[in-house]
Amino acid sequence: MNISKWSKTGKAGLFLVIILVIVVPLQFETPEIKNPPVTGQLSAPKEVTQIYKRACYDCHSNETKLRWYDKIAPASWKVVADVREARARFNFSEWNKLSPADQQVILWKTVNAVIAGKMPLTSYTMMHPETKISKTDVEILKTYVNSLPNNKPVNIAMAMASAKAADDELKNYRCKDVTDPAASLPVALNGVSYITGYRKWQVIASTNRFDNYTMRIVYGNDITVKAIREGNIHPFPNGAAIAKAVWNKIEDKDGNVWPGTFNGVQVMIKDDKKYAKTGGWGFAIFSGLKLAPVGQTALFENDCINCHRMQASENDGVFNIPLKNSELDKLKNTTDEH
């Protein structure tokens, strides 16, 4: 007998036995994915729902369809975890449980995630190539979300009058923001306080939200700016703070855009121990000129981190990663104007 040949055969057999001993028992430990009843579906044109059903429903619905290879452990464990997390974020089979405003926000998030190449997950499309979304699909989704009621152009005359009134109010707000003692500042339910004087910080970015007709100026404190310049953003260091001033946007029929009424301020503060449950960031939203904290319970921050993780995980949860070095210097503040 050829000893070399026997050795190779023996090794192959031993490897097969080891695989069987390890893999077979795992199949009895595979968690089950159940499909609860569908309570309400997305009501949209057929070409829109077809895209969502093909690309999203296996995870973001109660109509999950598993292929045979999705059921083999240990890969099946990841499949189950992904489905559970996806359903927790939003569920197309329970669409009726969301307010119209929340529905529109989620639809825009899905479009933004697709455009950014974040959804569907690459690991998923590799095994399920039929779920890939084409450029044509993206245009269909964009056209649909742009047609939703809250995304239609506003009445310009009314918007201008509202903007003027808000601008007058904002003058008082600006003075109050600078002079009020910290003890009187509003605080979110998770303990994150409004940051007074953030407009003295460096402007690090500006963003334009097409989904909810707002525009923003993003400010960073010294720690944030230093981290950006040095590329130390994976993760951002403790003490980094970001404030985003938000205005409702006015857009005329020719596409000209300018700030309207003051919407509020969004805050992120980095402390990897204090805010460990939310990715090391403390989140808060202060709405309107009264800077009313948003969120009926402290759990509102879970919605914040879920969104930031989904859309900006590669930047430690920070959207629209700011400009760097010389580009950043061009945006140095020269005034305290809003």
**Individual helix count:** 10
Estimated radius of gyration: 25 Å
Please report the distance between the alpha carbons of the first and last residues.
87 Å
The profile of the biggest β sheet is:
6 strands, antiparallel
Order of helices and strands: HHHHHHHEEHEEEEHH
Q: What topology emerges from the helices and strands here?
A:
Layout (H helix, E strand, L loop, with lengths): L2 H24 L19 H10 L19 H15 L10 H16 L6 H6 L7 H12 L9 H24 L22 E8 L4 E7 L1 H9 L10 E11 L5 E14 L10 E7 L4 E2 L6 H13 L12 H5 L9
Antiparallel strand pairs: 1-2, 2-3, 3-4, 4-5, 5-6
What does this structure look like?
The N and C termini lie far apart (87 Å). Residues 331-338 have low confidence and may be disordered. This protein has a six-stranded antiparallel β-sheet with strand order 1-2-3-4-5-6. Helix 4 (100-115) runs antiparallel to helix 6 (135-146). It is globular and about 60 Å long. It has helices spanning 3-26, 46-55, 75-89, 100-115, 122-127, 135-146, 156-179, 222-230, 300-312, 325-329, and strands at 202-209, 214-220, 241-251, 257-270, 281-287, 292-293. With 338 residues, the protein is α+β, with helices and mostly antiparallel strands. It is built from ten helices and six strands.
